[in-house]
């Protein structure tokens, strides 16, 4: 049996092991985040590189203006009756799985006169935003100040399935699609 010269040493072993693990992690951080040694000084971490400083904020994307522009463009195109179903599927979260639903959603005389005007975009995370919009049929605003959400999926801001389901519910569909 192993006996330590210091009878209390075994009590501090877990704390010492945790401290060693934490030190190892801290020493590895500069390599992981891309820090480099200043002017060739061996082993000393330098300031973070520019890529480390360019992170998305907790409540929005890295470039909110570009994201907002894409959201408005995609939201408008999704609700445009002239946009083909295949293109609408590219603008809907999980749209490739919902083409049949989109075909049904686009059918009818009222759908052919539908348009939207985005009035506000509020980011709730780097990959999600709330969209406020006016839904119009013909020239009349039928749902002013409506709310919906977008999701950043595959590099594209897309209308969320949740938003589409809310509109299907408003339409009075007797049997909502299974995704809803």
From TrEMBL:
InterPro entries: Mtb12-like_C
Keyword Signal attached: yes
Keyword Zinc: no
Highest taxon listed in the record's lineage: Bacteria
Keyword field: Signal
Low molecular weight antigen MTB12-like C-terminal domain mapped to chain residues: 65-174
Signal sequence coordinates: 1-41
Protein family membership: Belongs to the MTB12 family.
Record-given protein name: Low molecular weight antigen MTB12-like C-terminal domain-containing protein
Organism: Streptomyces virginiae (Streptomyces cinnamonensis)
Lineage, uppermost ranks: Bacteria, Bacillati, Actinomycetota, Actinomycetes, Kitasatosporales
């Amino acid at each position: 049996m192993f006996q330590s010269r210091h009878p209390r040493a075994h009590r501090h072993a877990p704390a010492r092991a945790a401290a060693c693990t934490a030190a190892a992690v801290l020493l590895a951080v500069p390599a992981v985040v891309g820090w480099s040694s200043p002017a060739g000084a061996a082993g000393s971490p330098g300031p973070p590189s520019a890529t480390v400083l360019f992170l998305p904020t907790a409540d929005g994307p890295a470039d909110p203006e570009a994201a907002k522009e894409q959201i408005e463009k995609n939201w408008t195109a999704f609700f445009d009756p002239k946009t083909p179903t295949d293109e609408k599927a590219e603008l809907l979260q999980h749209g490739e799985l919902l083409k049949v639903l989109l075909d049904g959603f686009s059918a009818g005389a009222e759908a052919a006169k539908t348009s939207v005007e985005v009035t506000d975009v509020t980011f709730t995370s780097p990959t999600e935003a709330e969209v406020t919009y006016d839904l119009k049929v013909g020239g009349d605003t039928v749902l002013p100040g409506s709310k919906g959400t977008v999701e950043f999926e595959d590099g594209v801001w897309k209308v969320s399935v949740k938003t589409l389901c809310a509109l299907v519910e408003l339409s009075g569909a007797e049997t909502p699609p299974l995704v809803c």
